[in-house]
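B., you asked whether I could sanity-check this one before it goes into the benchmark set. Here's the sequence:
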Amino acid sequence: MPDQNKICITVDSDLEDLIPGFLLRKKEDAFSIRLLIEKGDFDQITILGHSMKGSGGGYGFDRVTELGALIEVFSKEKNGEKIKKVVNDLCVFLDSIEVVYE
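And here's what the prediction gave me:
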């Protein structure tokens, strides 16, 4: 029986070797963004958000793309509180997904 708290995402089996590293990097990015907020380095946060926006969908994770776009927008506004909320949403998402390869 599937875990009710998991979000099942189907990904092309050709990407199976790449997905664990991709997901780990997104978790590392979330950690980095939290540190960058404390430093007030919104330029670097913009770069990380833009990268997420560009890469998420290509791996089958449209939610990463959506959240990356929000991070990019809020970093340009220098809105640390909104970025923190989006990063929390990203972490919850990353912890909740179960990848199925087809």
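One thing to flag: The CA atoms of residues 53 and 66 lie 6 Å apart. Otherwise nothing jumped out at me.
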